[in-house]
Write a structure and sequence with these properties.
Among the domains are: 226 residues, Aminohydrolase, N-terminal nucleophile (Ntn) domain (Glutamine Phosphoribosylpyrophosphate, subunit 1, domain 1); 66 residues, Roll (Penicillin G acylase, beta-roll domain); 127 residues, Aminohydrolase, alpha-helical knob region (Penicillin amidase (Acylase) alpha subunit, N-terminal domain), CATH 1.10.1400.10. It contains 21 helices and 31 strands. The longest helix has 27 residues.
């Protein structure tokens, strides 16, 4: 079934913008795709973009120019994730409820209130002409795939077609600024803390996280720099990674992009590589406004809102649409996100005038030296994320990257509160330039790490001090247990081998147990009942890991959760002892009482106190149910896995470790990778399903990152040659 025989332009913002429409239609109507089983031919790549799909479902894309590369990358993402990609773009338009019904109403309200579609159109015109052409080529590849393979796309999502470059930018904006920098759940939580009981209370969420390491030659057994990339995100929706290899003149990069993003977000090439971690960054503020008539109090007077009326179209179960008015109000601070009892909450988000984050990533992937890489970073188009970097020349770098507002006073905690909205004193305008951000290059320690801790603990001895930066730049601490475990593993090894790097990545050692069991065990043995003493015996024999066969971990974690993580320690974290605190039990008597209670619960629920971790914590998908390993904060486990309860008193993994890349900058580069899930979500996509991915995950396995012609030839599943552009 061929899609888009009639291309309705109404409602597709910017679809008619100059060459975007002309080139897009030409490509849609003129695409000719041939698919052959065979091996990569360099001569073919000189004439047409080629996609070589390996047996893990990874596309290796070759093109004679950047336009062909972007076009083929759009095609490949549709091949692997068409339904997901189109749903995400529909949400970024603020029209998801129109397409799919009431469940998407809140998403549309957020997108419209944040003015994402309008700003995306402005961002389109702000692109450099060459990169604008690349974005158009990516969108054209999406549309050409749909024209050719419409029968592979769920028709519920096909109505989003055709896609434009503006849709790509809207999706980028929704992901970066309005999910990672700030998201509606955070705003609702802040409103509740500010006393607005009308705000919707939400279940606690796992926050995006990550581990990142850079190891200099001086600390590497081989004498080559090494990089570890390990983002932690949910395994679905806009957080899903897409692994790919992109090759064209000036670029030969391997890595991962979030689905729908047209460039690699984490990557390496023959000379260098980088990863990102979610940093302790504050790029938004909420302001409480006192309402007066049709305005709000401002600098001793009253200022009117800028207001516009929109209409949400919401699809009904019977196929009709319900129109719902939506009033968008803006104060001098930004959009109004909530009104209640004479007050309003307005939001200010940094960097909304910086439109070229995608181009920055593209430039990073083509850099060949540290100076070129930093030149790519210096415009600060990426709104946030620490950068951990290593290269073949032996340099390593940590940058606390972010569009940090220049604030007049206060510390990080002060700016986490709702600000008064009646004065310009707290209304920031400017952002700190690159030179004013925390940055470490080639530290004496020979290593850098970040596990979502503040930049001050990126290496030891410390290379930067919080006293050299504004107090609002990042919090002074505490350093969470996972970050402490990260730093401790690097500190203990003066010559890290390749195999040790991978072993460390999969460490499930629980630092929380190391800090508390030396107090809990004697207290339980001396003052506990028979069941508590049995529990102490189990915990004393436990390996303090969360491997699938670890016995005692389930009991310990249940005890710590019941006691309450915030009340566990006698000694809090101390910046003077960052890797040995917090420590000690705060209340031994209470700890023993809770152990007695929890032991009875575990015994009743699982039939034994020493139930194996993997019997309770599972990796589940259709026709797959495997034992899991790893655990979440605040347990201090480097192998981060997030779980949600299931109906059978078990827990299923839903996030955490998602993409892993271990890279050694030898000649040639050595790299091993893994994805925690399939590289595809489409039913008809190329091989490599959830069973294969989850089995590798359960076994803590990595596979080679295929980059040479010989490697790809040995693992080739399928080849596509697209029409010349």
């Amino acid at each position: 079934m061929m899609l888009m025989q009639q291309m309705a332009m109404d409602g597709f913002p910017g679809f008619g913008l100059r060459r975007g429409l002309r080139r897009g239609v030409a490509l849609l109507l003129g695409v000719v795709m041939t698919a052959t089983i065979g091996f990569y031919s360099p001569s073919a790549a000189q004439n047409s973009p080629e996609i070589l799909w390996d047996t893990a479902g990874v596309p290796h894309i070759y093109s004679r120019d950047a336009q062909g590369l972007f076009y083929a990358f759009g095609w490949a993402q549709m091949q692997s994730h068409a339904d997901l990609l189109l749903r995400l773009y529909g949400q970024a338009r603020g029209r998801a409820a129109e397409y799919w019904g009431e469940d998407y109403r809140d998403s549309d309200v957020w997108v419209r209130t944040m003015e994402i579609p309008e700003r995306a159109a402005e961002w389109y015109t702000a692109q450099n002409p060459d990169f604008q052409t690349n974005l158009e080529a990516f969108a054209a590849g999406i549309n050409a795939y749909a024209q050719t393979h419409g029968d592979r796309i769920d028709q519920a999502f096909a109505q989003v077609l055709p896609v434009t470059a503006i849709d790509v930018l809207a999706h980028q904006q929704r992901v970066l600024h309005f999910t990672f920098v700030v998201n509606p759940e955070e705003v609702a939580d802040l409103a509740l803390e500010a006393g607005d009981e009308s705000a919707r209370s939400l279940e606690p969420l796992h926050r995006p996280g990550s581990n990142g390491w850079a190891i200099a030659p001086a600390r590497s057994e081989s004498g080559h720099a090494m990089l570890l990339a390990n983002p932690h995100l949910f395994w679905a929706d806009l957080f899903r990674w897409y692994e790919a290899h992109l090759s064209a003149p000036g670029i030969n990069a391997y890595g991962a992009a979030l689905v729908g993003i047209p460039v690699l977000n984490i990557a390496f090439n023959d000379q260098l590589g980088w990863t990102h971690t979610v940093n302790t960054y504050d790029g938004w503020d909420a302001y409480r406004l006192e309402l007066v008539g049709n305005g709000y109090r401002w600098e001793g007077g009253v200022r009117n809102f800028d207001a516009s009326q929109q209409v949400l179209k919401i699809k009904q179960p019977d196929g009709t649409w319900r129109d719902e008015p939506l009033m968008i109000k803006r104060s001098i601070h930004g959009p109004v996100v909530r009104e209640a009892e004479g007050t309003a909450l307005a939001l200010r988000v940094a960097g909304l005038d910086r439109a070229r984050a995608l181009e920055e990533w593209w430039t990073m992937a083509r850099a060949t030296t540290l100076s070129e890489f930093e030149a790519a970073l210096q415009p600060l188009q990426l709104p946030m994320f620490s950068v951990i970097y290593a290269d073949r020349d032996g340099h390593i770098l940590h940058l606390f990257n972010g569009q940090v507002p220049v604030r007049k006073q206060g510390d990080f905690a002060d700016w986490s509160e709702v600000q008064p909205g009646d004065t310009a004193t707290v209304l920031w305008q400017d952002l700190h330039p690159y030179e004013e951000l925390p940055r470490v290059v080639d530290p004496a320690s020979g290593w850098l790490q970040n596990a979502n801790d503040a930049p001050w603990t990126t290496t030891f001895p410390p290379a930067i001090s919080p006293t050299d930066y504004p107090a609002y730049m990042a919090p002074p601490g505490p350093m969470a247990l996972r970050a402490q475990q990260s730093a401790a593993m690097l500190m203990q090894d003066d010559a890290i081998t390749w195999s040790e790097l991978i072993d460390y990545k999969y460490s499930t050692r629980m630092l929380l147990a190391d800090r508390l069991l030396d107090d809990l065990l004697p207290a339980a043995q001396q003052g506990g009942n028979d069941l508590a003493q049995q529990a102490a015996s189990v915990l004393s024999q436990w390996d303090r890991q969360t491997q699938a066969d670890s016995r005692g971990a389930v009991l310990f974690v249940r005890w710590a959760e019941t006691l309450g993580f915030s009340d566990l320690f006698a000694q809090p974290w101390d910046a003077a002892q960052p890797l040995s605190t917090p420590d000690g039990l705060a209340n031994s008597d209470q700890a023993v009482v809770v152990l007695e209670q929890v032991a009875a619960e575990v015994q009743t629920t699982y039939g034994q106190l020493d139930v194996a971790w993997g019997d309770v914590f599972r990796l589940q998908a259709e026709d797959v149910d495997l034992p899991a390993n790893g655990a979440d904060e605040p347990l201090g486990v480097f192998r981060s896995v997030w779980f949600m309860p299931t109906e059978d008193n078990r827990f299923a993994a839903v996030g955490g470790d998602s993409y892993v890349a271990a890279v050694e900058f030898s000649d040639p580069v050595r790299a091993m990778v893994s994805m925690s899930y399939s590289n595809t979500t489409q039913p008809q996509a190329l091989p490599a399903g959830e069973a294969q991915a989850l089995t590798q995950f359960s076994q803590q396995g990595l596979r080679p990152a295929l980059r040479s012609q010989a490697e790809i030839k040995a693992h080739l599943a399928y080849q596509e040659t697209l029409s010349p552009l």
